[in-house]
Amino acid sequence: MKKGDIYEGKITDFDFPNKGSLIIEDRKVTVKDTLPGQKVRFSISKKKSGMAEGRLLSVLEKSELEDGVPFCQYFGVCGGCAYQNLSYDTQLRFKEQMVKKLIDKALPDYEYEWDGIIASPIDRAYRNKMEFTFGDEYKDGPLALGLHKKGSFHDIVSVCRENGCAIINSDWRKIVQYTLSFFAEKGVSYYHRMKHEGILRNLVVRQSASTGEFLINLVTSTQWSEYGFNREGILNEYKEGLLALERTGEFSEGGIIAGILYTENDTLGDVVQSDRTVCLYGQDYITEELLGLKFKISPFSFFQTNTKGCEVLYKKAREYINEGCEPLGKTVFDLYSGTGTIAQMMAPASKKVIGIEIVEEAVEAAKENAKLNGLTNCEFIAGDVLKAIDIVEDKPDLIIVDPPRDGINPKALDKILGFGVGQIVYISCKPTSLARDLQIIKERGYRLMKACCVDQFPQTRNIETIALISRI
């Protein structure tokens, strides 16, 4: 076996999130983007001691899991909804099996209560936020606006044509289509991430599930004048065109434009961030309602991307908290707190809730939201959890963690466990990170009591997991 060799075989094993594998010449070969039971053709891309990696060339025979019919014309081309070829029931079973396998592998010969998986209330048009990227669909092609092509950091798939992307509604597609046609007609170029030249970078759209409000944010470089464009004039014309979509009744799904923003971003990295943000119209936030609470969501603050699924997630988390921790009259730490949704959910049943979040904008939003909901026992601190928990004078009785995808920094986890609280509720958007952290948590004298999955991301490989952890 050597690099470039081509083989065929049947995928016999699978690891989260997309790593199918099989045995070839007594060597385990991992082939990404496959499913158990598929017969595939692949080429060897990497070889190492006892193992190898293959690049998928084609699927020769389907898996028994593939019992669904893809409903998006971009399936297989776009890098997003990888599970449209599975029925939703099959997606749930498959995700549940993968997460439990990860936890069982991390904690072998270990007893805990497995609480199954909970479906999202809706499995299409569920996204409340999307980041679309400007670029081209092929080298030197016309302007495109959409999502990254599968396996590519450069090519863009314009997924918002008619009957396009199925995880957003038709009003979103109208906004994206208008934006693309407007700037294509003006001849405004996209920002080339390798050359660091050009103007258009991203279009970020958020919508409230409860009010229908849209927050539309155009992100560009500052290179307008270098290409001879009148930035103010073009942005004003773009704004008026968006508002006309609402005024003329183009929106059929109840969309209302609450705010139109313009953000300048000259960072070299392929990331959406703000060097300067200006409100072109309306307000710089939308309002969402969740479990009887109201939240102002600003352009760069974190909020779960599936509002209806988020309600299910937090109801389940609250059930775990009340069952294992009885927070009444206690001090609660909500770490990686975002806009403070969990903290405010806990506030009525707690003596005090302290949220720590590294994104300052999210912390300011959390403070506003607490006032909006009449909560006086919430404190929110801006800072890295690793450092911020050292300056908090209060000691927690209960800790809730909802870290980013990479999980908890090992040094931060050491400090969290050092509080010695009776219970920790861990909400994870990446089960591999949770499994790794559970091993450390076990070594520090804690025990996983129960866990479950909540599907926040239908049609995709992603899944949320909730774990209730108790001190032995």
Report on this structure.
The protein is α/β, with parallel strands linked by helices and 472 residues long. It folds into three domains: 6-61, OB fold (Dihydrolipoamide Acetyltransferase, E2P) (Beta Barrel); 91-121 and 304-471, Rossmann fold (3-Layer(aba) Sandwich); 129-290, OB fold (Dihydrolipoamide Acetyltransferase, E2P), CATH 2.40.50.1070. 25% of the residues lie in helices and 31% in strands. It has helices spanning 88-106, 170-186, 231-247, 307-324, 341-346, 360-372, 385-388, 410-418, 431-443, and strands at residues 6-10, 13-15, 19-24, 27-32, 39-48, 51-61, 113-118, 129-136, 143-148, 156-157, 200-207, 213-220, 256-264, 276-282, 286-290, 293-297, 331-335, 352-357, 378-382, 398-401, 423-428, 446-454, 464-471. Strands 7-22-23-21-20-17-18-19 form an eight-stranded mixed β-sheet, with helices on both faces. A seven-stranded mixed β-sheet has the order 10-9-8-11-12-13-14. The chain has a six-stranded mixed β-sheet with strand order 1-5-6-4-3-2, with no helix packed on it.
CATH classification class of the largest domain: Alpha Beta
CATH architecture descriptor text of the largest domain = 3-Layer(aba) Sandwich
Mean pLDDT metric? 93
Strand order of the largest sheet: 7-22-23-21-20-17-18-19
Tell me about the largest β-sheet.
8 strands, mixed
What number of structural domains do the residues give?
A: 3
